[in-house]
Write a structure and sequence with these properties.
The complex is a heterotrimer of chains A (about 110), B (about 250) and C (about 130). Chain A is an all-alpha fold and about 110 residues long. In chain B, strands 2-1-5-3-4 form a five-stranded mixed sheet. In chain B, strand 3 and strand 4 form a beta hairpin. The chains are: A mainly alpha (about 110), B alpha+beta (about 250), C mainly alpha (about 130).
Chain lengths: ~110, ~250, ~130
């Protein structure tokens, strides 16, 4: 039987699910409170760990959501095709690349 | 029965989804108003209908005590064993009784289980001993802890309620399904067994655990508390770890 | 013997026919908000890279009426995600033994939610240092 490659997507889904479950509410609440400003955010992004944190949170939130949406399309009886893949994983991949390059360009 | 003419007979309305392939084109509900007592199961209600009202009513049953797994059906839209469900909880009705979801209807409340039957032997549902032993060498010994690892998964009575509960199976019957994955897991975690690699091939496929989206309804409806959702989802973690480590020395 | 003619029932609307399935769909639907929020964060990171004016523009959107509504909805949805995630998590785990007894699903869920509360609070407090 052909081995599925689902583990790649599922692992990203799982990692994103854990991160969003653990700190999601905190991040949303923090950004709502007008506490974050440019200099602080920039300082965070200059820091290697800070870069990693920002990258991981944005990227994994998207990989988690992409996987869930992709499979929920199937739950509605629609066989997800290339279009669905692009709207879900494609966007997550795109955003991952965009976020990574923005963070790297910011420098140290 | 003692003379209870002084007692009013209570009646329950049961609407059964009928399907007679040689008669009509579509299934349709037929209503039966029958007397019932507090101790009557839905199965007994169906038996009353068949004995006293309409002998053509067709359904599977055997033990009447929730161990044979024959009488699974949709009772008020929920997969249940008819012998294990009581009319008193639905009176005065109408109580809708339909064949198990996600299986083709054969006739009335009987479904075509062929898919399940054909998949069954593919999971190697027997122990292939890790080390062969002659009877003269004695039994395979197990500690209580080793028994505990697989015991709950061995309680499956093949009633198919979990398949009726599983929307992924309903959407695509290529999915191995909760019950068979639970049984497959039962053998994999039995200390006597050595055929895990063979079974994991099924697990790793798209039709194996990767069709599951953790709805969890299968474990909700299981009359024997097998917890098939746990068997399937534990194996997702195992399958994912294996996917990443298989090219490392010692991985598979 | 009469000829067999099995009847296959349609799956359309399956999730509307059982409250359990409606809860499942609600859980899955949280992904839409997580998706949009992830895009919001990505936009924030890009803005950060484009300088103070761009980043302040992003902050301004957060303070806009639509931004506030979206964040309020997101807060509720993320909270539901946290809850539903740790409810389903025990199902994915092999039995965990603590002191000889098997850890119950409720214990695992409770622990997860407790850790989430602590970590979200920590994230909230630490974010306050980003001014």
């Amino acid at each position: 039987m052909k081995r599925s490659n689902a583990p790649i997507y599922w692992s990203l889904f799982g990692a994103g699910g854990v991160i969003s479950a653990l700190i999601g509410p905190g991040v949303v609440a923090a950004l709502m409170m007008d506490k974050v400003h440019y200099s602080g955010a920039l300082a965070l992004s200059h820091n290697f760990v800070g870069k990693l944190f920002l990258f991981v949170v944005a990227s994994l939130f998207l990989w988690h959501a992409a996987h869930r949406i992709f499979h929920t399309i199937h739950d509605f009886g629609v066989k997800p095709g290339v279009g669905s893949w692009l709207l879900c994983y494609g966007v997550a991949l795109g955003a991952t690349i965009v976020a990574a390059s923005a963070l790297l360009r910011i420098g140290f | 029965m003692p003379d209870d003419t002084a007692v009013r007979t209570r009646t329950i309305a049961i609407e059964v989804l009928r399907y007679q392939p040689d008669e009509g084109a579509e299934p349709r509900f037929e209503r039966f108003d029958i007397p019932y007592t507090d101790d009557m199961s839905v199965l007994q209600g169906l038996q009353y209908i068949k004995d006293q009202v309409d002998a053509s009513l067709t359904y599977r049953w055997s033990c009447r005590m929730a161990i044979c797994g024959s009488c699974g059906m949709m009772i008020a839209g929920i997969p249940k064993l008819a012998c294990h469900t009581f009319l008193r909880d639905y009176a005065p009705g109408p109580l809708r009784v339909e064949p198990l979801n996600h299986f083709p209807i054969e006739r009335d409340l009987v479904v075509d289980m062929t898919d399940f039957i054909e998949k069954f032997p593919t999971i190697t549902p027997w122990i292939e001993p890790k080390e062969a032993k002659k009877p003269s060498e004695g039994e395979y010994l197990q500690t209580p802890e080793q028994l505990e690892r697989f015991e709950q998964f061995s309680h499956c009575i093949n009633c198919l309620l979990c398949y009726a509960a599983c929307p992924q199976y309903g959407l695509d019957d290529k999915f191995l399904g909760p019950g068979l994955t639970a049984l497959l897991h039962r053998y994999n975690v039995d200390s006597r067994d050595g055929a895990k690699d063979k079974r994991m091939e099924l697990v790793h496929s798209e039709e194996g655990v990767w069709s599951c989206t953790a709805v969890g309804y299968c474990s909700e409806v299981c009359p024997k508390l097998v917890d098939p959702a746990n068997a399937v989802n534990q194996n997702k973690t195992a399958s994912a770890i294996s996917w990443f480590t298989r090219f490392l020395p010692g991985g598979k | 013997m009469s000829a067999r003619r099995t009847y296959v029932r349609p799956m359309e609307g399956w999730w509307t026919r059982n409250p359990f399935f409606m809860k499942y769909m609600a859980r899955e639907a949280t992904a839409v908000i997580v998706y949009l929020y992830g895009l919001l964060l990505t936009w924030g990171i890009v803005s950060l890279g484009n300088g103070e004016a761009a980043f302040n523009g992003w902050l301004a959107w957060l303070k806009s009426p639509l931004g506030i509504v979206f964040q309020l909805v997101s807060l509720a949805v993320f909270a539901y995600h946290t809850w539903s995630w740790f409810v389903i998590m025990p199902k994915t785990m092999p039995p965990v033994k603590v002191g000889g007894k098997r850890l119950s699903n409720a214990a695992i869920t409770g622990t997860g939610i407790a850790v989430a509360i602590v970590m979200s609070l920590a994230a909230f407090v630490l974010a306050g240092r980003l001014s």
